[in-house]
Design brief:
The chain is 4% helix and 51% strand.
Length: 515
């Protein structure tokens, strides 16, 4: 069986219905109106491009069939009509922006074969951009070609419009190559490439210093809704690849996000104070966390109390990032109702990672989190929950690293219930799992069910979590500190160098059918 997960005017995406992680149980062929269009596909998600708008198609996989109609469009525009060069040398910014502005609602903009050199493009509502498989959107390398977005816009009635931020704080940023502000119902589709070109610019040089403004993201959506990205490749971004900010109904389907492993802060997908998000069939290989779910630092979290919520991550591949799926550390508005399932993690430092600390605030609530049907290989520490995260100067203070029970107040975050189940973690290096709560505010509950941990033949030593005074480990088991309840059911650890299970300050520990 398979189901349709994305529809646009020129593309469709489908997903096999099984419980396998990322890869299909067997290769399969795909037929479009009885014509074989994909042969021997091996992944759970497949997509079709170059389709006609408003057209009904029959898709077949084996004996199973689906009939789907692509979106109708009011008009189709080709950017060549607007005097683009498409040679990668001449500036196409004005022509591309003119095509976007001229496109009527429910219109389609075709970007054909060619390399289109451009600065930031500002999107408008109810349009679709379709990138041909041989189309490249090429970012300019001169930062003066990038407008600056102010952090906030002050309305006459006194309230603020939070326009732009950087790492959880309102801040001026350079506009992104694709920028949406208060727009809705936009789709960017196709097999083309959005080449941000940061490796040929100075965006990655002295990256911790703000020069007029902070670095742009690859794609930035501020206060937007119903944004769908399908099929495209985004690579070599100045900072985060894709950043929805106070936005809703975001789809990231069968997309590739690519930046070098050593590129600074090139997180893949970072929704911030956003909701109703689907990430399906995405292939990540980036220089920081593959997915980092955020909701601002203390001031933003306490003022707006807007969590990132109702998010699904399924059938994704994550490689070479610092963490595969990460919550925090800028999580002061909270994270709620997250499911991560059927994913493959390879060669990341950590797999499923929650990071917070004292000072993130009482609205920093993480709860309702489920991770299941996941395969990891050569992930240094597969499972981490860290309430002592020490990044930035304020994370290295005694207030953060103290192991004393401090007063619970408005600065104290809360971690609720976490469920990890049906996982295979091969070639573990540092530790199978490391869970470290606050003595004054323990992690509420952790349940591990049907998980197998196996260790690398020559494991690498490292710190399981980023915290002050942490000691390196190698080949350790499951470590729980300051957790209200730990439930272990059918856990296999083959074999750690130390104790399989270590507890400190755990109020209730139950084990069933463990090996």
């Amino acid at each position: 069986m398979f189901e349709c997960v994305f529809i646009s005017s020129g593309s469709l995406s489908f997903e096999l219905t099984n419980k396998h992680a990322y890869h299909a149980p067997a290769p399969y062929d795909v037929y479009l109106d009885d014509k074989k269009v994909i042969c021997g596909h091996t992944l759970n998600v497949f997509s079709l491009f170059g389709l006609k708008p408003g057209t009904t198609y029959e898709i077949s996989v084996g004996e199973h069939k689906r009939t789907v109609q692509t979106d109708w469009v009011k008009a189709t525009l080709d950017v060549r009509q607007f005097n683009t060069f498409g040679d990668g040398i001449h500036d196409d910014t004005a022509a591309l922006q003119a095509a976007i502005l001229a496109c009527p609602k429910q219109g389609l903009i075709k970007i054909p074969k060619g390399t289109f050199l451009t600065g930031p493009l500002f999107l408008k509502s109810e349009i679709t951009l379709d990138l041909d498989k041989d189309a490249i959107i090429l970012g300019k390398t001169d930062r003066d070609a990038y407008p600056i977005l102010p952090a906030q816009i002050h309305h006459r009635d006194g309230h603020l419009f939070e326009l732009s931020s950087f790492e959880g704080v309102p801040a001026p940023t350079y506009a992104s190559l694709f920028t949406g502000i208060g727009v809705h119902h936009i789709k960017i589709i196709g097999e083309g490439i959005i080449e941000e070109n940061a490796h040929n610019s100075d965006w990655w040089v002295d990256h911790k210093t703000m020069r007029k403004a902070w670095r742009p993201k690859g794609m930035f959506f501020s206060h937007c809704s119903h944004i769908g990205l399908h099929g495209i490749t985004v690579r070599n971004t100045p900072s985060w690849n894709i950043h929805p900010y106070f936005s809703t109904h975001i789809d990231l389907i069968d997309v590739k996000l690519q930046s070098p492993k050593d590129s600074p802060n090139t997180d893949g997908f970072n929704p911030e104070s956003s909701s109703h998000i689907r990430v399906i069939g995405v292939d990540f290989s980036v220089g920081d966390d593959c997915i980092a779910i955020k909701s601002g630092k203390f001031d933003m979290g306490m003022v707006y109390r807007t969590p990132t919520s109702d998010m699904l991550v399924r059938n994704c591949h994550m490689a070479y990032g610092h963490g595969a799926v990460v919550l925090g550390s800028e999580m002061s508005g909270g994270v709620k109702n997250l499911t991560v399932t059927q994913c493959l993690f390879e060669h990341t430092d950590r797999g499923l990672r929650i990071k917070t600390r004292r000072g993130r605030g009482e609205s920093g609530i993480i709860d309702g989190i489920t991770f299941e049907n996941i395969v990891m290989n050569h992930v240094l520490t597969p499972l981490v929950i860290n309430m002592y995260y020490d990044c930035d100067h304020d994370g290295k203070t005694e207030y953060v690293w103290s192991r004393e029970a401090l007063p619970v107040d408005s600065r104290t975050p809360y971690l609720g219930t976490f469920t990890f189940k049906n996982m295979v973690c091969d070639n573990v290096h540092v530790a199978a799992g490391y869970f470290d709560g606050l003595p004054e505010q323990p992690i509420e509950k952790i349940r591990l069910e049907n998980i197998v941990f196996s260790y690398a033949l020559v494991p690498t030593s490292g710190k399981p979590a980023m915290m002050t005074h942490a000691e390196p480990m190698v080949g350790q088991g499951l470590i729980f500190k300051h957790v209200g309840a730990v439930e272990l059911d059918r856990i296999t650890i083959n074999p750690p160098h130390g104790q399989p299970i270590v507890t400190e300050g755990v109020k209730h520990l139950t084990k069933q059918s463990d090996d």
